[in-house]
Amino acid sequence: MQFEPGDRRRVLPRHLRPTASPEVFSYTIRPARAADLPHVREIYNHFVSNSAVTLDERRSSIPYWRDKFALLERLQLPFLVAVSPAGVVIGYALAQPWAGMNAYKYTVEDSIYLGPGAGGKGLGAALLQALIDACERIGLREMVAVISDQGAEASIRLHAKLGFVEAGRMGRVGHKFGRDLGTVYMRRQLTRTGRRRGSLFGARR
After folding, report:
1. Residue 57 and residue 176: Cα distance in Å, rounded?
2. Global pTM?
């Protein structure tokens, strides 16, 4: 069919126009591997350099993450990553000892970070829930979160959504980017579905 000058092409009604398929945000959560550590490091260092979510001021190194990975593996504590369909690590969550004394063997501190662009899509809740489930399966009883009191409101909301309650605050204990920062302590009681074998800190003294 030919169109003469001045003709207007027919526009299909809205309900007949083809619709673009919405982009689906998908991921897989699995235990971290040594090969994931460079990606984990970059996610964490993004927050070190650009936010007060962490009070770290020095960018972390690969040897630092190798040591942490080895420690958590030795203690049999969960270290999880979220991976995109293309195999890119887009977030991580881990549980580490709360304090270096045997009496704290059933308590851990969580750490959870999402890569740029991965926030606000439910990934944080999925990762934190997976971490909680993993800790319950190995018989842990308490999970503690230490959160910056400035710039980390999303983290506070996330933990509250997953059953954490505020346990206290400490003001002006940190200083970063030229300003004083405090910390918010939150805790969640875990339901033990498994049994902890041994201690997080080796043999009893």
Report:
1. 7
2. 0.85
